[in-house]
Specification:
132 residues; 5 strands; three-stranded parallel sheet; 11% strand; 6 helices; mainly alpha
Length: 132
């Protein structure tokens, strides 16, 4: 398995730098040809969302669509894919950041009944407890 950093994934997806996009594509293509998958961890996904939002102006819906496509791409191995899938669904329907939803879902999976937060944008999520 080969790990991907955020900048490689961004170049692969956005293709805004032709040279780097080709290198990223070749790396992923070569890994697949060797029978490997490309691993994407939670931090890379959170950074990806931030970059797509701030540097490229992607909408929440566009970002959720990109994340859904990553989740179903067989060449990518996603850290705790089922939890990420739930967090992406939460992100698509809610007002919080993907990182917040991942935190809540991971904590819940680890046995926490609720995750305490001051972030009021998460008030509709049952895995969070808003501290007033």
């Amino acid at each position: 398995m080969k790990g991907l950093d955020t900048n490689v994934l961004v170049r692969y997806l956005v293709r805004d730098d032709k040279r780097q996009a080709e290198k990223a594509s070749a790396y992923i293509r070569d890994a697949i040809a060797e029978g490997e998958s490309c691993f994407i961890n939670h931090i890379v996904l959170c950074e990806l969302v931030w970059v797509l939002e701030t540097a490229y102006g992607f909408s929440r819906k566009e970002i959720a669509d990109v994340l859904e496509k990553i989740l179903i791409t067989k060449q990518f191995e996603i850290e705790q894919k089922d939890i990420v899938r739930q967090a992406v669904r939460d992100y698509n329907q809610g007002k919080g950041d993907l990182a917040d939803y991942l935190i809540g879902r991971i904590n819940h999976e680890c046995g926490c009944d609720r995750t305490a937060t001051f972030d009021r944008s998460l008030k509709d999520m049952p895995v969070f407890e808003i501290l007033e």
